[in-house]
Amino acid sequence: MAYQVLARKYRPQLFSDVIGQDHVTRTLLNALAQSRIAHGYIFSGHRGIGKTTIARILAAALNCSTPVGTPERPTNEPCRICVNCREISSASRQENSIFEESSSFDVEEIDAATNRGIDDARLLTSKIQTRPTNKSKYKIIILDEAHQITDAAWNALLKTLEEPPDWAIFMFATTQPEDIPQTIRSRCQHFSFHAVKLDDIVGQLRSIAIKEELTVDDATLTLLAEAGDGSMRDALSIMDQAIASAPLVGDHPHLEITQVRELMGSVSNVAYEQILEAVHANNSADVLSIVGRLLDAGNGAPQLARQFVRYLRNTIVAKVTNLAPDADATGIAADLLQISPEERNRAARSAALFTEEDLSRFLAIMLRTFDELGFRQEQRFHLELGLLKLVHVQRLIPIEDLLSQLGAKPASTPATKPGSLSSSPAKSPTSRPESAPLPNAVERPAVRAAQSQPQALHPSPFESDRTRKVPTAGPAPSEPTTPTESPTLSASPGPPESTNSFNSLPKPAQDSGFTSCASTATAGSLALASDTSPAPILSGPQLVVDLSAAAEPEAPSTYDPSALQSAMVSALAAVKGQQSASEQIEDSTVTLKGNTLEIHTTLSKTMLPVILNADAERTLKAALRQANAGSLTLKLLSGTPAATSAPKKPRQAVSGSVAELAEKHPMVQEARRLFSAEISNVIDLREKD
Predict the structure, then answer these.
(1) Which of 33, 145, 457, 505 has CB atoms 3.0–4.6 Å from 407's, for a disulfide?
(2) Would residue 632 count as lying in a domain?
(3) Structural domain that includes position 69
(4) Are residues 202 and 235 in the same domain?
């Protein structure tokens, strides 16, 4: 007899022989016992998991001529000895034909990928109208790869499926049930097959190895089962190939794991464990060395990336399920990790080196790298770049670390009352060492660890889960020097011992009304370098903007704060896009203390630099110059002033402004008359050129 491949030789002939589909076989056996037979079935699922096999077994059980309860057929399983059972089972010997028919006249197995047109559907409809022979009860049509049938052919079958003859039963096997029209699916019973579990595949392979007299260990069987990826047929096909390439030891094939891995073109996961260990150690050279060795051995870059993605997935599952190394996987860990115990321990060891966030980033990077390898010319370079990204991403600061520092309170700086001024003395521009970072530079976690840490008012929500390693600490920033009398821009003080100054700052002309200054900048503070500097970044409770020269004369007593306020409001209102700034200056309380003009706004510390930005500051500077008040020091303060101020006058719209147009609108005037309403904000929604 000609040689039969293992997938055909050990094809199940009974429901009890089917591995991993208990939910389907149990339902069908109960339906046979209760005589609740549907006229249409859809069997869908992964390839090689028993869809067509169960369809044949069900057909044999329906047409089996041996009565149930007899010694030859004690249950609803087919007896396998009657004429109908033997004819149906003979179909497995004709699988190479395009039109697969068993020797049974009443059971037809059709390849729907080839016979998929409307003419084939019409021929099938005509055949189904013929009654079965006297020895059979049903006329059964099995259509494999049913998703290949055209829409026109489905429409031709629709009426027959809706009202079939009493003896007609259709069985559709498909891997893509979504491609079958909903009108067809609603007329059939749909059974979704599961991928076969690893342990079930290993057990079946072990049973076949004993029958075939193979010499093989459990590790090799597990590797073959993993290669099947949930498909029993795929695992048996790979096993067939491995047997053909195995050496003979005492007239029996001897399978070794190294020989099987070489045959499959796969790499041991030990290499991927070593890659993650090198990533954990921030050793880019080791990562490139390992991947170079794998590529030089003849492994393809896409294959390596695919295997690494699978390994990272298993590592994430081990991390999520808290799987400890050298521990037996139980519960959800055993269900999600369909790999051998040795591979589970390896995944758990790799998971212990990183956090769940790190592993998720690694998997995202490698998935993108795997996608890019499909259309890149230099696949080796892109694979190496993707692996180097795993090392580089370890050097990034997590966003939760930055967020947890926003509420930090300094330990060495005296606390100030809300609403009070807070200023930092400036250092000399020559006092900063060359190694000191700029005030707005982001520090690495190692530098923060070397410094005195402030007590965080809002600790990071990820702190309990973080096991991140800390690299060697860098040099600490220098101590502040003796302050000078330079005017400053400051916010709330940051962490101690993090004070720095700018090395050099440009100085504008003396008649500008605003001057740049060297200042002490802590974490969360920024010095105003020039009139064109960007808006300062603030984190303290107040903002103080020093817009005067280093040495200013005393302000004349003839300055009227109200007149200066009106001049600044008018100047801002005349500038396009500064309507909000004009309204805020108008709502503020302006006081003159010596040569300092204080403007107490109602803005928060966060919104103050947004509304009164650099453009608004330049406009204020021009307004003060025009009012001959360029020698005044202007301070913008957030929040409500502590001192009681005079009641504000009703806001008057600037002539020609949008607010004036709004006040003249009849609907607005009527609302003000009826409800004593006041216009708070005016937003211009007209289309601009």
Answers:
(1) 457
(2) yes
(3) 6-192
(4) yes
Q: Provide the pairing of β-strand 248-249 with 139-144.
A: unpaired
Please check whether residue 344 is in contact with residue 361, taking contact to mean a CB–CB distance below 8 angstroms. no
Which of 160, 192, 224 finishes a domain?
192
Q: How many angstroms separate the CA atoms of 540 and 422, rounded?
A: 9
- Could you report the per-residue pLDDT of 296-335, keeping only the tens digit for each? 988 889 989 999 999 999 999 999 998 888 777 777 888 7
Three-state secondary-structure class, residue 455: strand
Describe the crossing of helices 232-245 and 198-211 by its angle, rounded to 10 degrees.
40
Buried b (16+ CB within 10 A) or exposed e, 380-399: bebbbebbbbbbeebeeebe
Answer yes or no: do 173 and 53 share one domain: yes
Q: What is the average pLDDT across 233-256?
A: 89
Residue 290: its pLDDT value, please? 94
DSSP 144-204: ESGGGS-HHHHHHHHHHHHS--TTEEEEEEES-GGGS-HHHHTTSEEEEPPPPPHHHHHHH
User: Is residue 366 within 8 Å of 308, Cβ to Cβ?
Assistant: yes
Contacts of 342 (CB under 8 A, 6+ apart): 219
Instruction: Let me know whether 29 and 178 are in one domain.
Output: yes
Number of domains in the chain: 4
Encode pLDDT of 480-534 as tens digits: 444 434 333 333 344 444 334 334 444 444 443 433 333 333 333 333 333 444 4
Q: What is the predicted pLDDT for the residue at 448?
A: 41
Ranges assigned E (strand) in 582-629: 589-593, 596-600
Residues 149 and 254 in one domain: no
